[in-house]
Amino acid sequence: MQIEDISDALTRGPTGIYTAPGRHDVSYAADGHAHCFQVEDGSFWFRHRNACIAAMVRNHPFEGPLLDIGGGNGYVSQQLVRDGNEVVLLEPGPTGAHNARMQRGLDHVVCSTVEDAAFHPGSFGAIGLFDVVEHIRDDRAFLARIVPLLAPAGRIFISVPCHAWLWSKADVDAGHFRRHTRRSLQTLLDGLFTIDYLTYFFRPLVPLQFAMRAVPFRLGLKTNSLLSDAAEHGADNGLSVRLMNKLLAPEVELIARGKELRFGASCLVAAHKTRAP
Predict the structure, then answer these.
(1) Domain annotation covers residue 109
(2) Is 119 a domain residue?
């Protein structure tokens, strides 16, 4: 696949990153990608999310490239490529796009919004929105706009944070508009995509996020942003992190077997494009 074959608007720069004219603001911390890049490889949270996403994607195969919208530094895309998928990473933030191309070595990196990239209809076999939907104010309209990018049997893969009662300063700092539930995701996708698989995950984190994030936020207590906290992500691989890894490991096994978990701090969805009547 060549990017030039699926878009007439993108131009390849000297570093191999494709760009398009135009600029749209996105709801994401300005330095978020730089902070995330510092912790991703050593983070139990990012590792577990990657393992769960990869397990879900393997269970729902597709034909053609996958468009990783809002792919950031390329952490998820890199795993999907290792699994044998052809991936186009789309990231409007220059820092994230640079890290994805120059640090993670991804071949197809586009620094642009979906609108400016102007991909041809039907260019992709799948679209990934991994912790992206919660950053989009009018998420339903956005999903409707990207449906045409998929082939007739195309799939969409989504991960989102869950439960409004877990809302905290971390959500505010990250630029979230909402946290989801099974029901809200079903409503969001209805008529656009047909859900094949929907599961919660990160169940052991629920009490921790509630006690350490949500409650202090409700009480108006000042806390540090958890987005860039290496200790929060378990970079030291201490006893508590090793225990958390053991508690989380069964989730990967269950997702790989196609089981749906009924509770957790985040949610995964695999769905396919709904045929027009």
Answers:
(1) yes
(2) yes
